[in-house]
Design a protein that fits this description.
single chain, about 170 residues, alpha+beta, six-stranded mixed beta sheet, four-stranded antiparallel beta sheet, 10 strands, globular
């Protein structure tokens, strides 16, 4: 019985430690036909829910977000405050939808208005860094059959991508 108690306490204490590093990903692609940027942001569902709660954003259950609901708009605003793409001016994105997966991640799908793609993109991707200082985000931009990858840290929240000419 003592062994069982010890193991139970030990396992519970391990689960309370959580994990030290937090990750978010974004895939950004320029669609030459529509001239729009298409973005997917992939984030841990429970980490995002925790950050939203700490930031006093009323999101409700992320799995039940309804299109154009006040909760979806609040989540979009939070995400867009922490994912900013600039080419001379800030590019505006529309939230197309989201999916919550059983593996504990949520994907958010965005699309910009038609834009003239500039040679330089300044990207700020500090999602969840206001809550988790260990947060690391990574973006992969696909444009004109080339890929550009950047990593964002608490101390390096903004990155420049120079798009090569064909």
């Amino acid at each position: 019985m003592k062994l069982f108690t010890f193991l139970a306490v030990f396992l519970l204490s391990l689960s309370s430690l959580g994990h030290e590093y937090f990750f978010g990903f974004s895939e950004l692609e320029y669609n030459e036909i529509t001239q729009k940027l298409e973005a997917t942001i992939i984030v841990s569902t429970h980490e995002l829910e925790r950050a939203l709660a700490i930031s006093a954003v009323n999101s409700g259950d992320l799995a039940k977000l309804k299109v154009d609901s006040p909760q979806q708009k609040a989540v979009k605003n939070y995400l867009m405050n922490h994912f900013v793409v600039e080419a001379n001016e800030t590019i505006k994105f529309n939230l197309i939808g989201s999916e919550v997966f059983l593996n504990g991640t949520t994907n958010f799908y965005f699309e910009s208005e038609s834009i003239e793609l500039k040679r330089e993109l300044n990207i700020t991707f500090d999602l969840l860094m206001d809550v988790f200082k260990q947060q690391q985000n990574k973006i992969t931009l696909t444009c004109r059959n080339k890929k550009y990858t950047r990593t964002f840290l608490y101390t390096e929240r903004k990155q420049l991508i120079i798009i090569e000419k064909n």
